[in-house]
Task: structure prediction
Amino acid sequence: MSRRALDLGWIRVFDAVGRLGSLTAAAQELGLSQPAVSYTIRTLEEQIGAPLLERGHRGSALSPAGRLLHQGVQAAIGEIDGAARAIKRLDQRPVVRLFTDYGFASFWMMPRVARFRTIRPDTDVHIVASASTEPGGGDTEDVAVLFGTRGDFGPDAVQLFEECIYPVCSPAFASRHGLLETPEAIGRLPLLHLESTPRPRWFSWADWFAARGIARLPSSGDLGLNTYGLVVQAAIADQGIALGWAGLIDAAIDDGTLVQVGPALNRLHSGYWLRRGPAMSSAATQFVEWILQETGSRPE
Result:
């Protein structure tokens, strides 16, 4: 919808002349010619039956009748413009902005966002995703879902998923290398690494091997990728073994696209956290409640 002011014809012309005290200045403000403004005022004076301006060498001042009319015009313009703004607001759809990383956006939010639309069909969800997000980011958004620890987010944040990883690969890759029978073979096979930040806050392959008490040297067949979506796609394409994040790849495990080929490693107070924005609209509040319901999470 256009943001231009409603065309009120002579009312805006007379208001500009009264405010600016000049036919020429009023014409410039309104994008009209000076003769057109002068003609409008003369026609109005004829209809009123009284002079509205006292014309002089230095401009035009309102006459007593002009001042009286100008007061009514200004009040009317204020009321009309206010009503027009209110009507435009009624026609605007509520928008909720979610700040998160590519992993959560791609694997959790996108498959489920249609469900939220059934609850709030009038609300638009804008997902602002980044390959590498910091816990302090997203302060201007309605809702942020970010990875980190309780200390990163404070007492008001709600943990959606505990950090839990386990090795995954395609069924064909697992069968070809006998991983379902001998998971210890993982250390001899190509690994897929998420390398989106110099100092990752999440578990890496080094953490998994350390927890298993296994020393593993880098392999020439390893592959580093800068987004979790690429890591998962590479695993599906038989390129190696990835670390699967519980909460993100559950659907791929459930439908058999990926299979778990090793024990899990978890960290209680680390994972994905939901943080509300500083000024929550009713649509944003309902969006948060929907996420909490979908994840089975509740504030502590």
